Amino acid sequence: MIAVIDYDAGNIRSVEHALGALRLPAVVTRDPAVIRKADKVILPGVGAFGDAMEKLNAYGLTEVIREAVAAGKPFLGICLGLQLMFDESEETPGVAGLSLLPGKIVRIPEGDGRKIPHIGWNDLSFPKKSRLFDGIPEGSYVYFVHSYYLQAKDERTVAATTEYGAHIHAAVEHGNLFGCQFHPEKSGDVGLRILRNFGSL
C-alpha cells in the first residue's frame, strides 16, 4: 500500500487518481500510524516551501517521513515534494527542509523571454540508469509547473535533467529516495509509467 501524505498541499487528488488508474493500492492520509504501515510513501505538493514545512511540522509528519526513509521504504517526492526533500529554498530563506538529500532550491533565472513560473512540457535527459525511468526513452516529455528548481549537491543523485534558462535537476534517485520536479500524474503515458515503476519497487 502507498501512503500519499496529505498536508493540505495542492495536487494530492490528481496523484490519487493516477494511482487508482494504475490499480496501485493507495490511501491519502496524514495519520502517522497509517504511514508507518505503508510499503511506500509519496509526498506530493504544489505551493510554497515555507508554508509546506510549517504544515508538515504542525501535523507531526516531519518525523514520520524521516522514520519511513530510515526504514528503507521507497519514498517519492513530486514537485514541491521533491523540493522539501532538500536542505533549503530561496523561496523561504531560513526555513529548513527535510534534508533527506543535500542540495538547495533556487529560483529560475529571468530573461530571454522566459515565463516564470515555468508551465509546460519539457524533455528529459538521463545522466544515469534509473529504476524510476526504466523503459522510458531519452527525450521523453513531461509536464512542469514551477518557479524554483533543484541544485543537488551530489550530482550522482540526479536521475533526470532538463533545460529552462538553467540546467535543471528534474529528478533524483538515491537508494530508496526518489523525486520528480515535474508532475508524473499529469504527464500522460510517460508519467503513468514512472508511477508504475515506483509502484513496482
Explain what you see.
The chain has 201 residues and is of the alpha/beta class. It has a single domain (2-199), classed as Rossmann fold, CATH 3.40.50. Helix content is 26%, strand content 29%. The chain contains 6 helices and 12 strands. It has a 7-stranded mixed sheet with strand order 2-1-3-4-12-11-10, with helices on both faces. It has a 3-stranded mixed sheet with strand order 5-6-9. Helix 1 links the parallel strand 1 and strand 2 (26-29). The mean pLDDT is 96.
Q: What count of structural domains?
A: 1
- Could you tell me the strand content as a percent range? 25-35%
| CATH-defined superfamily | Class I glutamine amidotransferase (GATase) domain
Secondary structure tally: strands: 12
Number of helices: 6
Radius of gyration: 15 Å
CATH class type: Alpha Beta
Structural class: alpha/beta
Query: What share of the residues lie within helices?
Result: 25-40%
- N/C terminus separation: 12 Å
Order of helices and strands: EHEHEHHEHEEEEEEEEH
Brief descriptors of the model:
single chain, 201 residues, alpha/beta, 7-stranded mixed sheet, 3-stranded mixed sheet, 26% helix
Q: What is the fold's blueprint, element by element?
A:
Blueprint: E1 2-5, H1 12-21, E2 26-29, H2 32-37, E3 40-43, H3 49-58, H4 61-70, E4 75-78, H5 80-84, E5 88-89, E6 103-107, E7 118-123, E8 141-146, E9 148-152, E10 158-163, E11 167-174, E12 177-180, H6 188-199
Parallel strand pairs: 1-2, 1-3, 3-4, 4-12, 5-6
Antiparallel strand pairs: 6-9, 7-8, 10-11, 11-12
